[in-house]
From TrEMBL:
Lineage, broadest ranks: Bacteria, Bacillati, Actinomycetota, Actinomycetes, Mycobacteriales
Catalytic activities: 2 6,7-dimethyl-8-(1-D-ribityl)lumazine + H(+) = 5-amino-6-(D-ribitylamino)uracil + riboflavin
Sequence intervals crossing the membrane: none
Protein name: Riboflavin synthase
PANTHER family in the record: RIBOFLAVIN SYNTHASE (PTHR21098:SF12), RIBOFLAVIN SYNTHASE ALPHA CHAIN (PTHR21098)
Entry annotated with the keyword Transferase: yes
Molecular function via GO: riboflavin synthase activity
Residue spans of the Lumazine-binding repeats: 1-96, 97-197
InterPro entries per the UniProt record, alphabetical: ATP_synth_asu-like_sf, Lumazine-bd, Lumazine-bd_dom, Riboflavin_synthase-like_b-brl
Known function: Catalyzes the dismutation of two molecules of 6,7-dimethyl-8-ribityllumazine, resulting in the formation of riboflavin and 5-amino-6-(D-ribitylamino)uracil.
Quaternary assembly: Homotrimer.
Uppermost EC category: transferase
Length: 205
């Protein structure tokens, strides 16, 4: 489990491609300081298992389905990535409960800068729109964010977040231009509520 508070902006330093998978070597001195084989590290919101640690880098294998269903398939040498270690039981829950299981991908469709923050609008898959509420939580590329606006237009469903300077500087979202593909994970609590309500509506329940 993660909290969506990005600890470090890492960098992809090697990519090994195979027929049905890929191995990424990622530089992240902070997250690798106490990491070992089998530990979990979220990379742009995707929970990956550490297979090796060496000189401030870690290696992780990614299967073809994950590459296709997330933005990880578009990573290359030098790509910046958001990194977060799995939450410790005694740590603060600074963001919200994040599983590291991507529900879908969205796209940056607009950026509106202001004096002290920037509003970023994302397109999202129609099937995920029902899980978003204004002032609720969503994870974008592993970053826990608050939904500041949402709606639908002729091009489909969208939501907005307001990014403060710290988030712009400390995550990949600061450099995400219009057209950038991002990983989305909706609040798991919303999915549990949906499941429970559906079960109650079943005949004979």
């Amino acid at each position: 489990m993660f909290t969506g508070i990005v600890e470090e902006l890492g960098e992809v330093v090697e990519v090994q491609e195979f027929a049905d998978a890929a191995r990424f070597v990622i530089r992240g001195p902070l997250v690798t300081a106490d990491a070992g084989h089998g530990d979990s590290i979220a990379v742009n919101g995707v929970c990956l298992t550490v297979v090796d640690v060496a000189d401030g880098t870690f290696s992780a294998d990614v299967m073809a389905e994950t590459l296709a269903r997330s933005s990880l398939g578009g990573l290359g040498l030098g790509s910046p990535v958001n990194l977060e270690r799995a939450a410790a039981v005694n740590s603060r829950l600074g963001g919200h409960i994040v599983q590291g299981h991507v529900d879908g991908t969205g796209t940056v469709i607009a950026r509106t800068p202001s004096q002290h923050w920037e509003v970023v609008r994302f397109a999202l898959p129609a099937e995920l729109a029902k899980y978003l509420v204004e002032k609720g939580s969503i994870t974008v590329d592993g970053t826990s964010l608050t939904v500041s606006g949402l709606g639908r237009d002729a091009d489909g469903d969208w939501f907005e977040v307001s990014l403060i300077p710290t988030t712009l500087a400390a995550t990949t979202l600061g450099a995400a231009v219009v057209g950038t593909r991002v990983n989305l994970e909706v609040d798991v609590l919303a999915k549990y509520v949906e499941r429970l309500l559906a079960a109650r509506e079943q005949p004979g329940e």
